[in-house]
Please model this.
Amino acid sequence: MKIHRKSHFKSPQKDLAWFDAWVHKLEESNGRKYERIIVETALGKTHVWGLNTHDESLDTLVIFPGARTTPLIWDFDRGLDYLHHPLRIIMVETNGLPNPSDGNTPDIKSMDYGHWAAEVLDKLNISRAFVAGASFGGLICMKLAITHPDKIKAAFLLNPGCLQPFSMTWDNLYYNLLPIISPKTANVSKFLDKAVFCKPNHQLSAFAEQMLIDYEVFAISGARTGRRSPIIWMPSWPK
Model:
């Protein structure tokens, strides 16, 4: 697999410590501990979070996050509980995004991310699974489905970057570019309110929303160089 781009933390020790503290805050809020798994892949070390991974009698769900997000946002306010089905859950920190995985990225136009996703499943001894992807994560699911369809029971693509074009309206461009130009808390909050949430139907608790804002400021402000897209997607669970 050819590495097309490499990204990195500007201050690795400081930034990784911040990310780890952020995860601990989420664990304390949710009252559960995420399993930490590291697998060696063609893109280097890939960090994976897990829930119920030792119960092989359960169906497996593998989640790939959107650009400049972490799969852990799927569990804000214990959101994964709203799946209402017992599952082994694997949350993959995609290489090249601002997370603990190595920053190696293949050519996005190639099928390499599909081969990488299959390798992650193989390293975790997962023969077939349900896969879900949001935005950029949907693109990875699509490439996995093209390259290794035998590994997928069903795919759930939510606002997938591979199928749904990005809206080029002036309002949408403004609110998406605002946090890039000035990655401040107020601007990220405005972006979320105007371009992501649909309150009151699609809304997080005050704690979770602040966690999301903190993470986005961390990610967009240049914690890791490389792709600079503020576009994110938040899952909306039925409650």
Q: What stands out?
A: Residues 5-166 form a domain with the Rossmann fold fold (CATH 3.40.50.1820). The two ends are 42 Å apart (CA to CA). The first helix runs from residue 12 to 30. The longest strand covers residues 44-51.
